[in-house]
């Protein structure tokens, strides 16, 4: 089928109302889970071919999160689908009110290459849980994982319900010409703008999960040992190709040297220096290797700086004496380079961060609650944490999403269900009482006083 035919077929199937059944949804989610488990080896092999990502990293940072979303959703979707009672004001007495979730319809999910399974399949779980049909396009930048997901999805579901397609920018353009009821895109800001513009032509609501330069503040009272471990892990996970990774550090001068030494020691102990290994994956392609290499200022290398284009390897690299005027501070790094910017005046540091577009994540390492609260309240960002990085993403109960140029909308857990649902507001009015005299002429001052009381005070 063509994309147009697929969308038409899915819309016809959605109109039958079959997907509105919670039992149907749960059955499909369980089928989804079974398909993933049956295809695990295919998924492991495909991602290793694309990114040299180990089974360990693939399970912990990809499949486990999708499995968790499936379990959490299967256990809760019946509750989420029920009427949500809300209060009714005195003006509308006697009545009862509630919100009722309904699926949006035909959805389009465009995945990203850096976590190809998690960032494609997790929003698909949320869409199907809400009762939608779905067209899925994994990223062509990771072709083997794209092919694996397309095979798994299309062998599991009927195309009129859920269909996966492969292709590059031309295929994406063809898909975006269709009328969808919701579009969910994960990727870069530039492509996100194209998606947003295409959706606007059809008045289609969108969720955009983008990125940005995520700062991490290291305060003077931080626990150096723990801080270093969590920053190093969060930065080098996926070889830095993580939208919620620490993009740069703002380190108070009093702890800078201690932190640098501790991070270097950890990297030397746990990560490779000269090539891809089971504990460290490749950069996705040579173009990205060249882009990352161009961000390295040899004069500012504190540790690392090894680049092997042929094997798509960039070593864990710490850069120090970095300023906000350096080239590396002008774009999202999306690689294993960690610039360290020294600060003495928190006011100045905050002012510099505010010059950037709003980041997807912000992290604070330290125990000074006054400074922590100030950073969390003054700076705008999608989500973040104190004394940790990245891991807030894995909390089912925290919505995940950006703000401004780092994204629109959120998902994960019940928030994902809400994203792919429309909530109808409904009021059921009793018939045994009617304030007809207040609604109809002649309008009198005493009537107005009663209405003021009902509307403004009660």
Please give a structural write-up.
Helix 3 runs antiparallel to helix 6 (143-156). The strands form 4 sheets. The chain has a 7-stranded mixed β-sheet with strand order 10-13-14-9-8-15-16, sandwiched between helices. The chain is globular and about 85 Å long. The protein has 2 domains: 3-210 and 408-422, 3-Layer(aba) Sandwich (Aldehyde Dehydrogenase, Chain A, domain 1), CATH 3.40.605; 215-396, 3-Layer(aba) Sandwich (Aldehyde Dehydrogenase, Chain A, domain 2). The chain has 16 helices and 18 strands. The longest helix is centred in the first third of the chain and has 26 residues, at 55-80. Helix 13 (369-378) links the parallel strand 15 (361-365) and strand 16. The mean pLDDT is 96. The protein has 458 residues and is α/β, with parallel strands linked by helices.
Topology:
Blueprint: H1 3-15, H2 22-38, H3 40-51, H4 55-80, E1 84-86, E2 95-103, E3 106-110, H5 118-129, E4 133-137, H6 143-156, E5 162-164, H7 169-176, E6 182-186, H8 189-201, E7 206-209, E8 215-218, H9 224-236, E9 248-252, H10 256-270, H11 286-293, E10 301-303, E11 307-308, E12 313-314, E13 317-319, E14 337-343, H12 346-353, E15 361-365, H13 369-378, E16 383-386, E17 407-408, H14 413-419, E18 421-429, H15 436-439, H16 445-457
Parallel strand pairs: 3-4, 3-6, 4-5, 6-7, 8-9, 8-15, 9-14, 13-14, 15-16
Antiparallel strand pairs: 1-2, 2-18, 7-17, 10-13, 11-12
Q: Strand portion, in percent?
A: 15-25%
**Number of helix segments?**
16
- Number of E strands: 18
- Overall pLDDT confidence: 96
Using the CA coordinates, give the radius of gyration.
25 Å
Report the span from N to C terminus: 58 Å
The tally of domains stands at 2
The largest pleated sheet is described as: 7 strands, mixed
Please identify which CATH superfamily of the largest domain we are dealing with.
Answer: Aldehyde Dehydrogenase, Chain A, domain 1
Class of the largest domain, according to the CATH hierarchy? Alpha Beta
The CATH architecture classification of the largest domain is 3-Layer(aba) Sandwich
Outline: globular
Helix content: 40-55%
Q: In terms of per-residue confidence, which ranges show pLDDT below 50 for 5 or more consecutive residues?
A: none
Based on helices, strands and strand pairing, what is the structural class? alpha/beta
What CATH calls the topology of the largest domain is Aldehyde Dehydrogenase, Chain A, domain 1
């Amino acid at each position: 089928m063509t994309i147009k035919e697929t969308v038409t077929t899915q819309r016809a199937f959605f109109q039958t109302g079959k997907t509105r059944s919670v039992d149907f949804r749960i059955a499909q989610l369980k089928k989804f889970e079974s398909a993933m488990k049956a295809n695990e080896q295919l998924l492991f092999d495909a991602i290793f071919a694309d990114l040299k990502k180990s089974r360990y990293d693939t399970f912990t940072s990809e499949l486990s999160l999708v499995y968790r979303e499936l379990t959490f959703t299967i256990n809760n979707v019946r509750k989420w689908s029920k009427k949500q009672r809300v209060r009714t004001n005195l003006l509308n007495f006697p009545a009862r009110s509630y919100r009722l979730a309904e699926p949006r319809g035909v959805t389009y999910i465009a995945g990203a290459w850096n976590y190809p399974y998690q960032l494609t399949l997790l929003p698909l779980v949320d869409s199907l849980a809400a009762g939608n049909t779905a067209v899925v396009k994994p990223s062509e930048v990771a072709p083997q994982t794209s092919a694996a997901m397309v095979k798994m999805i299309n062998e599991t579901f009927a195309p009129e319900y859920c269909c996966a397609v492969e292709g590059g920018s031309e295929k994406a353009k063809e898909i975006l010409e269709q009328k969808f009821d919701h579009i969910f895109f994960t990727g870069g800001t530039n492509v996100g703008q194209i998606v947003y513009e295409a959706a606007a032509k059809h008045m289609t609501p969108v969720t955009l999960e983008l990125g940005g330069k995520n700062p991490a503040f290291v305060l003077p009272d931080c626990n150096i040992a723990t801080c270093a471990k969590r920053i190093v892990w969060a930065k080098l996970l996926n070889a830095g190709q993580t939208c919620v990774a620490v993009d740069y550090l703002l380190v108070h001068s009093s702890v800078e040297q201690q932190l640098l030494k501790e991070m270097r020691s950890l990297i030397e102990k746990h990560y490779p220096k000269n090539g891809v290994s089971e504990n460290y994956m490749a950069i996705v392609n040579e173009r990205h290797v060249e882009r990352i290499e161009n961000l390295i200022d040899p004069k500012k290398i504190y540790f690392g700086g090894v680049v092997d284009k042929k094997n798509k390897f960039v070593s864990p690299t710490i850069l120090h004496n970095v300023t906000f005027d350096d080239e590396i501070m002008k774009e999202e790094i999306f690689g294993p380079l960690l610039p360290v910017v020294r600060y003495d005046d928190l006011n100045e540091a905050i002012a510099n961060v505010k010059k950037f577009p709003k980041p997807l994540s912000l992290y604070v390492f330290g125990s000074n609650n006054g400074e922590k609260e100030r950073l969390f309240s003054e700076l705008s960002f999608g989500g973040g944490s104190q004394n940790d990085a990245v891991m807030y993403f894995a909390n089912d109960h925290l919505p995940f999403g950006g703000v401004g140029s780092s994204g629109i909308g959120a998902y994960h857990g019940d928030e994902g269900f809400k994203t792919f649902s429309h909530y109808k507001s409904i009021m059921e009015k009793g018939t045994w009482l009617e304030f007809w005299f207040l609604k109809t002429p002649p309008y009198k001052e005493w009537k107005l006083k009663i209405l003021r009381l009902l509307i403004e005070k009660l």
